[in-house]
Amino acid sequence: MNTNKINTLFGQPISVINIGLNSMAASVEAQGVPVVDLDWRPPVEGVPSLQRTRQGVDIESANQEVCSRIKQGRPTLVGMGIARDVIPGMHKQMILHAGPPITWERMCGPQRGAVMGALIYEGLAADEAQAERLAASGAVEFSPCHHHHAVGPMAGVVSASMPVFIIENKTFGNHAYCTQNEGLGKVLRYGGLGPEVYQRLKWMETDLYPTLDRALQTLAEGIDLRSLIAQALHMGDECHNRNRAGTSLFLRAISPALARTNQDNETLARVIEFIDRNDHFFLNLSMPAGKALLEPAEGIAGSSIVTVMARNGTDFGIRLASQPERWFTAPAGQVKGLYFPQFSEQDANPDIGDSTVTETAGYGGMAMAAAPAITKFVGGTPQMALQNTLEMYEITFDEHEHFTIPALNFRGTPCGIDVRKVLETGILPRINTGIAHKKPGIGMVGAGILRAPHQCFQDAFDSLAAL
Questions:
Q1: Which of 16, 143, 340, 401 is 20 to 30 A distant from 324 in Cα terms?
Q2: pLDDT tens figures, 217-237
Q3: How far is C-alpha 403 from the geometric centre of its chain's CA atoms?
Q4: Does the pLDDT value for residue 24 go beyond 90?
């Protein structure tokens, strides 16, 4: 068969989008024609069409308002501070964590490890054994980051003395908070423990934070994170597990102010090297940017849009714009991915972290088509990354105006996960994420991809239908 004829139509190269049977895609691809295999399935039977609540609220109108608020937001890095001084409700005996509420008894290994490490870092415990006893004693208050306008990657632990970024949504005036990113490997957010972990955290408190804070204080307009995210999407990031461009853009934006406020050349050099060598540094800015975008959309009666999606390594939880105080939870899933040497799936903890705020806000896994190289980190293929974004349009209510994907002719990223569409299509949000070792103290073991669990979306849909 002449593949040159198959590959062209009226003299122009062609490609095929396959919807349905995988065998059809394989047959066409075998003939040398590029194929995008869309994971489509018929609508799920038995899911009622939900257009209005029982109280008569028009869900479509409510969702339009929610997505309009998300798209209007302008998250801006305006400064830094110490957690106990700037995060609402924070105090010395409080530890914030990722995901929905959880007690010490139900915490997974990496989250326990991070809590223990934070207590040692704070000087509340001398060693791991004492930290574990203190954590189990009831003397420490555990609270989700999301209950305090904050987010935390992986274990998500924030303790009183930790420096945090302050992000302001310039459109609506709300604020969001997040710690500085430690890097990969044996780090606190993955449950890593040991002298090197505490030493790094103390350097971030005594050197990194003051250096960045002085620079930010000279920037009257702050740093526009919406603009940086939009640019990073055009440079190969999706701003969840790939942040190389975002980190470089941030360093470029703050470098003149760093130079002007410099008090010690060696400290400045170490700060620049630390950020430059940590491609994930921007994650701790893209996450609170997402939180700042989403919070103004909370409290819209009748909306079926998800405004929180988070995991604590034991439970996966979501919250709706129409029910911002209520968590709908299901067991956290197991991540499939790529592992560091000497580790495997048997070592992995279930899905963990607040970083799914990026998917909730419309980038991260939603924008994988913009970041085909991410598959080298989390697994899969560039075609899978493209398919993932195309599939996510099926379960979202709108598309972003400011976040666009070059490979899709600059189409806006999927915006506003709609629990109605999740139930109607049977398509669950796809997440790319890091993987922590299931035992406390070890840290990161890999990265991968998984779907959100069905049950929490079912429960949220049933709750909305009962309103």
A1: 401
A2: 999 999 999 999 999 999 999
A3: 15
A4: no
